[in-house]
Amino acid sequence: MCGITGIFDTRSQxxxxxxxxxxxxxxxxxxxPDEGGVHIEPGVGLGHxxxxxxxxxxxxxxxxxxxxxxxxxxxGEIYNYHPLIAELQALGFLFRTRSxxxxxxxxxxxxxxxxxxxxxGMFAFALWDRNQETLFLARDRxxxxxxxxxxxxxxxxxxxxxxxxxxAHGGLARDIDPLAVEEYFALGYVAEPRTIFxxxxxLSPAHTLTLRRGQPIPEEQPYWDVRFSTDQSLSAExxxxxxxxxxxxxxKLRMIAEVPLGAFLSGGxxxxxxxxxxxxxxxxxxxxxxxAFDDPVFNxxxxxxxxxxxxxxxxxxxxVKSDDFDLIDTLARLYxxxxxxxxAIPTYRVCELARKYVxxxxxxxxxxxxxxxxxxxxxxxxxxxxRAALPQGVRRxxxxxLGRVYxxxxxxxxxxxxxxxxxxxxxxxxxxxxxxxSILRGPMRDQLFSPRFKQEIAGYNARTVFEQHAAKAxxxxxxxxxxxxxxxxxxxxxxxTKVDRASMAHSLEVRExxxxxxxxxxxxxxxxxxxxxxxxxxxxxxxGMEPYLPDDVLYRxxxxxxxxxxxxxxxxxxxxxxxxxxxxxxxxxxxxxxDYLRHLVDAHQSGVRDYSAPLWTLLMFEAFLRNVLDVSVAxxxxxxxxxxxS
Length: 646
Fold this sequence. Notes:
Blueprint: E1 2-9, H1 18-26, E2 35-41, E3 44-50, E4 63-64, E5 70-78, H2 81-90, H3 101-111, E6 121-129, E7 134-139, E8 148-151, E9 156-160, H4 163-169, H5 178-187, E10 200-202, E11 207-212, E12 221-222, H6 236-253, E13 261-264, H7 269-281, E14 287-293, H8 301-310, E15 314-320, H9 328-335, H10 344-354, E16 360-362, H11 367-371, H12 375-389, H13 392-405, H14 418-425, H15 429-437, H16 442-448, H17 451-457, H18 463-470, H19 478-488, H20 490-504, E17 509-511, H21 517-523, H22 539-544, H23 551-554, H24 565-570, H25 574-582, H26 584-589, H27 594-605, H28 612-627, H29 636-643
Parallel strand pairs: 13-14, 13-16, 14-15, 16-17
Antiparallel strand pairs: 1-3, 1-9, 2-3, 4-5, 5-6, 6-7, 7-11, 8-9, 8-10, 11-12
């Protein structure tokens, strides 16, 4: 696992400033503390920070082909590199290392831009081909690994694993994109391909970008998508057997390492299934790591302990105090743009714990999306049956009225669904799903934002992100559609972002067996009845794991990684949240309705409403302004100029 960065002059061969490239590279030192290297030639500079995992002695980067005309910097793992080496050797390519990185330079020479279709893994890389004067960038299918880029007005192209490397260049304008702000307050993250800055973008999942000197700026090109056919006819028994075999193979691929290896073990179905497969594949006890909470409402460590004892793992547990909120500023600096998933706190802590014992950890991320585990999926299917029974001409006015007059419950979407259901029934399927996953729903954002901000976004609604993806889903199956949406939005923008930054902050590599693209493709061929059956989510995974895991782990209510925000904001963080939300930094933007901000704070702290999720979203936005943009509050005019809001 590593950090990559670079500079490319798209118009000429101007000299690359070595000091600038070094600064960009070192800004990501945490991603690769073991080694660092740069490659510079006229008009091109590539940088790399290495966390050594495979081929410790000869896998240094930048890495070159035999004559030095092709150079690559790479972040991630190509899990199928052994068969690819054999295939490329049969074509006449000679390998000087034992690393998966060298596969990339030879695969490019053999297959060009189609090389990415051969790779099974998590990756973001940049490859320079001097003979073709071409810079080629690629990102893995489910965007496990990040890749940011920006075009500057003078023709300079920048890229990096994190936004901080682009900011370290010094030439990236810090103008905030108002449309990104709308997406952030709806979703809790800025959705791909947008970033918080107008000038920067994220390379989209399963896309490549090919730049040739002297040619017009190209469009990103897709190379993969998942298709939910849901038409494979298998009995539950046969599907369970095939699923278990595929999961075992995915786990086995991800156990290749020359450094200490382990797994996260939360006590949930997904991570427990991964540990069970690892235990069957390993001759030594598996290293497992868990976080316990001192608040029993959030603590599921007893279930992790059940699995650890069953498989006699080397189990490590640390308890996180329920007042572990000192990470707010750390997280703001870590994520580089506003990010509002509060489970980033325990995720950071479990990565911190794991790094004491291992360098690589397998996780259970991605299981909910592919196997159908979220409670919101079951609620959506119930609402879909109601939507199908009534024409929209009847639903929209009837349920729109019920949604408006029903007692307010927009503050608790995961606990109390009546108001949400009424509002959803008045909408189309995609509108309803977007509404159900929004942190601040449409009516709340309408009150939150000022007239000035509404002018700046000119009617843009973050719902557009979902509608654009839905148009490409090619399925009329209700569950498949929202699984597809989550694979394109929540999994990428929230889950993978959270885990990558939290793990790399501790120089820990996290691997994702449940996001193996071949497993995801196979699951997409199965009927939805094998994923949700009655009120049981993840039916196939749970059924398939019955021989491996206790029923108490498989069939208990889902808890998730949560922190007690509501109590924090009425207790130890009461003054801090008031000062942040009602303070000068948010006011200086001119984007927020001050009266509504005060309503959110007062209503929550008086106990009238639970506005903890919106308040956390605002708190993290203020922390971003303070820690990433370093917005001064000394003079209001200077504040607005510093934030560069328009």
